[in-house]
Design brief:
This protein is α+β, with helices and mostly antiparallel strands and 204 residues long. The protein is 14% helix and 32% strand. The protein has a 5-stranded mixed sheet. A 4-stranded antiparallel sheet has the order 4-5-8-11. A two-stranded antiparallel sheet has the order 1-2.
């Protein structure tokens, strides 16, 4: 006997393998975790997290982090033009069927940013910029993988997964961080971007 589920539209019982609801005719969509593009997004986020972990050691007398920038500032390094286009908070990210909410006492900080290869050579995917949230005590926060994947269903991203970023190409990226709402409202947070140099963008 086929497993029974509830129709997401009218709540009527229906077979799990039915293409449409027998009562209202709504399509029986596959669970979001069975869609290939969801796993592709998760893979991108995981790869980005590992890629950002290998920071180069600082030479004696060399300034580690550049002076603070603000949201929407155009920041140029030798290889990239980087802009943090928006930083906002949210209690829920994602669409109707694939969404995520923060834990009790938490809030999502959504970072949208873009970067362009301004060098004359391709940049490998693992050498593209990565971003983390940093509080006033220097604690670094990693992106929430579930929330970032959920948010990616809301907007159109064109970040590279495994291919090189060729000269002159700009990509849009986004990451979602789960932060204590009380701590975030106290201020002092910034975005730390690691590229061919480290950049700090003040956000609150």
């Amino acid at each position: 006997m086929s497993r029974m589920i509830k129709c997401k539209v009218c709540n009527e019982d229906m077979a799990a393998n039915a293409k449409t609801c027998p009562k209202c005719g709504a399509k029986n969509k596959k669970p979001i975790y069975k869609k290939w593009w969801v796993w592709a997004i998760v893979a991108v986020v995981i790869i980005g997290a590992f890629a950002g972990g290998g920071e180069e050691p600082v030479k004696t007398g060399e300034k580690k982090t550049e002076a603070q920038y603000a949201v929407k500032d155009i920041i140029n390094t030798e290889k990239f033009e980087i802009v943090v286009t928006d930083v906002k908070t949210s209690k829920k990210v994602g669409g109707a069927y694939f969404n995520t909410e923060p834990s009790e006492g938490g809030i999502f900080v959504v970072l949208e940013w873009e970067y362009k290869n301004i060098s004359d050579s391709p940049v490998a995917a693992f050498s593209c910029p990565s971003a983390r949230l940093v509080d006033k005590n220097g604690t670094k926060y990693d992106a929430d993988l579930d929330a970032t994947a959920s948010y990616a269903t809301e907007i159109k991203l064109d970040r590279k997964v495994l291919s090189d970023l060729n000269p002159g190409i700009k990509v849009k990226d986004a990451q979602v961080f789960e932060i204590s709402e009380e701590a975030y409202n106290a201020g002092g947070f910034s975005v730390k971007i690691v590229a061919d140099k480290e950049i700090e963008v003040k956000i609150n």
